[in-house]
Design goal:
InterPro entries: MetI-like, MetI-like_sf, UgpAE/MalFG_permease. Helix content is 72%, strand content 0%. The chain contains 14 helices and no strands.
């Protein structure tokens, strides 16, 4: 019995040892650099058909016309089939000496500054209010976003009727409340024409900027504002010390985009004043259109387009560097 018992114990120990014995580890097979290179090549080949169409469109619709415009700006082409002559940088020299073009640059900058001072504080204020409005939010959104449905030409004609000195609603209201001295031809007065255009542009396009700012505000965690309020910060301190630094990357990008859009403004001015009165609303885009299509000076207009592109690119790069978030934080 003793030998049988010892044999049973040894058998059980053997079974336990076999149960806890670790399985032999399998060697992980590392992929060779050649295999990784083959995978990368296959991925690149797969991406080429998807990149080919955008690259072709970019070259056909932007790169080729851009270099064609540069070559055209160095000729004396007037838009006819006559032989053109190479004049070098003569159009650019004439452009530098053109007082009307310098005035158009100043008017463009004035348009940018006036619209910037009104647009962004107003859009930020409305977006901040919409963020805290729950019950009537849809009504306010409909009222604010409704003008964006109209085309620029329709909105421009509408505001021309509003500013009309004879039957426009502004002068009619001023006359009805006894302020006849304040009535004037709003778009016919050089001192008020640009302001009137800026108001129309903001009324029509502010909804887009409200949506973008509202999206930036939605990304800010509410816990940060609540923690600042619990620490005793006022509403203004929460807005200036918490919200604005976190929103500044979005605002800086929007500022650069608005500068680019301001440099290219054309439709509202062309519809409402056509650059008048006395050139007070003549901007770079309308002056270029006037020289190229009305004056048949296509080479001169091409030189103006190249200068406009250089100004927009240079100022956008400078603005992007000056409006970096780390500068705001400092």
């Amino acid at each position: 019995m003793t030998e049988q018992h010892e044999a049973t114990v040894r058998a059980e120990d053997a079974l336990q040892a076999a149960a806890v014995r670790p399985e032999p580890t399998r060697s992980v097979r590392k992929s060779s650099p050649r295999a990784m290179n083959n995978v990368d090549r296959q991925r690149r080949r797969l991406a080429l058909p998807f990149l080919a169409v955008p690259c072709v469109l970019l070259g056909a619709l932007f790169v080729f016309p851009f270099f064609q415009t540069i070559s055209m700006s160095m000729t004396d082409w007037f838009g006819t089939f006559q032989t053109t002559n190479f004049v070098g940088l003569q159009n650019y020299q004439d452009l530098i000496a053109d007082e009307l073009f310098r005035s158009a640059i100043l008017n463009t900058l004035l348009y940018f500054v006036l619209s910037l001072v009104v647009l962004f504080p107003l859009a930020l204020f409305i977006a901040w209010g919409l963020l805290r409005t729950r019950r009537t939010r849809s009504f306010y959104q409909l009222a604010i976003f409704a003008p964006a449905v109209l085309s620029v030409s329709v909105a421009g004609v509408l505001w021309k009727f509003i500013y009309n000195p004879n039957f426009g609603i502004i002068n009619t209201v001023l006359e009805s409340i006894g302020l006849e001295s304040l009535t004037r031809p709003w778009l016919g007065d050089p001192s008020t024409a640009m302001v009137g255009i800026v108001i129309a542009v903001i009324w029509h396009g502010i909804a887009t900027w409200i949506i973008l700012i509202l999206a930036g505000l939605d990304r800010i965690p509410t816990e940060l504002n609540e923690a600042a309020s619990l620490d005793g910060a006022s509403s203004w301190q929460v807005f200036s010390r918490v919200t604005m630094p976190l929103l500044w990357p979005v605002l800086s990008t929007l500022l650069v985009l608005w500068f680019i859009e301001s440099m290219q403004t054309f439709a509202f001015i062309y519809v409402m004043t056509d650059g008048g009165p006395y050139g007070s609303t003549e901007v770079m885009a309308t002056y270029m259109y006037r020289m190229a299509f009305d004056g048949r000076m296509f080479a001169y207009g091409s030189a103006m387009a190249i200068v406009m592109t250089a100004i927009v690119l240079l100022m956008s790069l400078i603005g992007a560097k000056l409006l970096r978030s780390d500068r705001f934080d400092s």
